[in-house]
Specification:
The complex is a heterodimer. Chain A is mainly α. Chain A is about 65% helix and about 0% strand. Chain A has two domains: about 60 residues, no CATH class; about 230 residues, Orthogonal Bundle (MetI-like fold), CATH 1.10.3720. The radius of gyration of chain A is 26 Å and the shape is globular. Chain B has a single domain, classed as Orthogonal Bundle (MetI-like fold), CATH 1.10.3720. Chain B is built from ten helices and two strands, in the order ααββαααααααα. Chain B has a two-stranded antiparallel ribbon. The chains are: A mainly alpha, B mainly alpha. At the A-B interface, helix 1, helix 2, helix 3, helix 7 and helix 8 of A face helix 1, helix 3, helix 4, helix 5 and helix 6 of B.
Chain lengths: ~375, ~300
Amino acid sequence: MNGNNIEPTRSPGGTSGPGALPPRPAASPHPHVPTTTPLGSLSTGIPQTTSSKRVRRLESRRPHLTERLTELTIKVLAYSSVAAIVLIFLFIAKEAWPIFTSAAIHREVTLAKMWFIQQWPGYDAPEHVWQPVSEIPKYAVWPLIVGTIKVTLIAMVVAVPLAISAAVFVSQYAGRRTREIVKPAIEFLAGIPSVVLGFFALMVMASWFQDLFGFDSRLNAVVAGVALSFAVIPVVFTVCEEALGAVPRSYVEASAALGAARWQTIVKVILPAASPGIAASIALGLGRAFGETMIVLMASGNAAILSANPAESVRTLSATIAAELAEVVFGGPHYTVLFTLAVLLFIVTFGINFVGDQAIARMKRKMGVAS
Amino acid sequence: MSRSSLRPSRWPHVGDVVLWLATGLATLLVLVILAVILIDVIKNGAPRLTLGFLTKAPSDGMTAGGIFPAIFGTVALVILMTIAALPAGVATAIYLHEYASPTAWGTRIVRIAVNNLAGVPSIVFGLFGLGFFVQFVGGGMDKIFYGGDKVFGQPALIWAALTMAILTLPVVIVATEEALSNVSPDVRLASAALGATKFQTVSRVVLPQAIPGILTGAILAISRGAGEVAPILFTGAAYFLPTLPHSLHDQFMQLGYHVYVLATQSSDVDATRPLLYATVLVLLVLTFALNASAILVRSRMRRHLSRSHG
């Protein structure tokens, strides 16, 4: 029923402010229209009611003191999410800050040593080496970044086509009964804890893949990437399916009236119309893949090798933090470097998710205007 | 939508057959992946799943005994987490949906924060919990109340629960907002017309109708909290403890962490494998039961709503 919510007369994205409406208390124009915007229940959750704004307008008199106090409490609690995200960044950045300033840490590691290639004693040529526990600790981040990109890329290459295809099938072809099986099943897949997926990859999949492809190292980027894709599929599917369902019925009817076959309508009308939502689904999936920890920690082999070969063991940013933080000296160089990696992880996922949310917002605006 | 009404009545187009087949096979593959994981875990885990396994502590270097302390720790963790996350999450949703103007910059900032909080990698939550709760808050409490003795300034149940509460906050907020938006605007108008104040309307008319939705959010949050491991790695989970946690500043064992440790750090993989599978099965059954009940509550709520909306 999601697709039916779009009202031709509704203004885009609920942007009409209270001022634009006459202060009539009664007779909401669509009293029975559920007010969730189709994408509203997703990560953004922006259901908007015009009527609740009208209710507020009714209270022209000053509310009681207790009323104002409760409202203030609610408002303060509402900002707890803002406080949380700010505190998360501040406290990670605080622990990473000495990488810029501390002379004691600079004796062992600097930002330049992390990012630029170094000639290490005992090595024939300059190399990027991540080897924090050794006589001369080495903190080159490139092996970790390349490892993260490799695993993420494999996960996306597997997950995106599968998830988008499944979303097309469920929203366009499947009958009601098929939908009622597939959607809860994918919700169940989303509900599997990542440590269980990591366990499955480590104990079962790794052996299957080795038998199948003859990998030298049992745990590698392919095993980790494919296991990671199981966590990404539900994210991409859910957002994508809602985006496809939100395409206005009028588009589909117009296309059918012009004589287009179902598949032509899907490929040439529905998919392009839903493209911002599909882009958002990919972005949110990417954010999930990039930051996921337990699956890669268990299934990737955790060897920090700088190589493009997907059959080799890899070590990702998140897995490095998870594996090494327990054994470091508080406030030491290694500790500081791990928090620096966390800042990097935070900023990149924040960026990816921001782009995804913007795409969802654009999708909503577009659908609102177009219908 | 238009799914059935616009299905062509003639023979289907070749393109339709191809697209139907391709997308259908992809869907089938996703289902097969899920089935393979489930069958493998059930087949290998079920034989070891006895009452004793659920009620005893691990023994003989994790190769015998049960997982009761891990179950206890998981339950304690999610209860504390829910107590912390539910009020803040519900209040945020009420504010966003009932009070805030959708275009005000403050509202936008809260929304951006909620969305991005949902996307922060779980390991970053773990680091934050360590830096903020364990060291800053816990260490600060030790300095003020315990004269510098280490009581709260170390990984503990309470810090893990609070870290997890922040992680699951967006889940509660999104579910509650959906529930609030499903409450008919008419009842808000009716309540206001009878002279109820805004808060009276919210607390006595809107919230009671939104309870199933809020419950769904809480269940989903618990399911998420029961399965996450990365946030508790450094904030309170322990590999093995001889006793159950008996205060908020004790460490605890947890099912997901137990799986991780058994799978990666066992000295004798073959000896621990049956126990490991059984532990995974318990964790899966727990999260699946929670997710299934959330789906059930939600579908009942939707049916109820569609009936009352005509």
